[in-house]
Amino acid sequence: MTILDGKKTSSDIKGEIAIAVAELKKQGKKTPHLAAILVGSDGASMTYVGAKVKACDLVGFESTLLELPADTTEEALLLQIENLNNNPEIDGFIVQLPLPKHIDEQKVLMAVHPDKDVDGFHPTNVGKMALELPTFLPATPYGIMELLERYKVETSGKNVVVIGRSHIVGRPMSILLSQKGAVGDATVTLTHSRTKNLKAITQEADIIVAALGIAEFLTGDMVKEGVTIIDVGITRVADATKKSGFRLAGDVDFASVSPKADFITPVPGGVGPMTIAMLLKNTLLACSRK
Ligand code: GUN
Predict the structure, then answer these.
(1) Among the four residues 51, 83, 93, 163, which has the most C-beta atoms within 10 Å?
(2) Which CATH architecture has domain 139-272?
(3) What's the CA gap between 97 and 238, in Å, rounded?
(4) How far apart are CA 91 and CA 32, in angstroms?
């Protein structure tokens, strides 16, 4: 069993980005600048955005964090987005999800200029991805593709089962793994909450991407020997033995699944750190495209 070490791989990628940034600076070119908008004070979102800003510092990017109160109106948020769209200093920016319920998420994501949409959530960029045209790939699926590539996990002709059809992970993952060429050429089954007899489907899978957001959902009896497991879940589970009062659990029951797996991502330290590295990679691309 090989652990797909996202912490180490993301660190390698950040090292590569840092070298590229140093080179840009040496040539007197613009330093990449990522901005993030956080609306409200959801604990997990604050942690994620904080990690993104810290990663910018590490590779030598500029970063700007806009923290807006939870009662920010949709109109005020759209105005902030317009400002970032028009600010030549900012190469790319993200609006951290989820947004408060009174804000229309789709409207917000469509307001981000596609050339600055380093999350790859704008319909223009989703469309380009689906057509296999160069674009910003959404960071989590992009990070998973990078892990599979760097660990040389064969995907061509394999049965891939994706659990969860979110716009951020499941759906783009299914598109990317079925695209032509490496990493891709897989036969993909996209499953979700209405799927019947999921266990019979996962038992046939060579690769499983678990992205449904239910702690320790996928258990050993649901997978075959030699499977590759990508665990996207990261749920806070109450744990009185921890100082924080919680532990982080994936969508995969690591204890029962890992003995049967050839490759498996841990939680934490698997997909999570890769997401941040790929967001930086997209920002570098946004900067160098100009
Ligand atoms: N919330 C959960 N994942 C993501 C992500 O990749 N980008 C943004 N903006 N919000 C998220």
Answers:
(1) 163
(2) 3-Layer(aba) Sandwich (3.40)
(3) 23
(4) 6
26 part of the active site: no
The amino acid at residue 279 is: L
- Residue 220 CA to ligand 1 centre (angstroms): 29
How high is the pLDDT of residue 290? Answer: 80
Mean pLDDT to the nearest integer, 204-221: 98
SS3 content of the chain, % helix, strand, coil (to 5): 45, 20, 40
Q: Which of 5, 91, 117, 119 is catalytic?
A: 119
Q: Convert the pLDDT of each residue in 38-92 to its tens digit.
A: 999 999 999 999 999 999 999 999 999 999 999 999 999 999 999 999 999 999 9
Tell whether ligand 1 has an atom less than 6 A from the beta carbon of residue 139: yes
Q: Which of 5, 14, 52, 117 is catalytic?
A: 52
Q: What is the H or E stretch that residue 228 is in?
A: strand 227-231
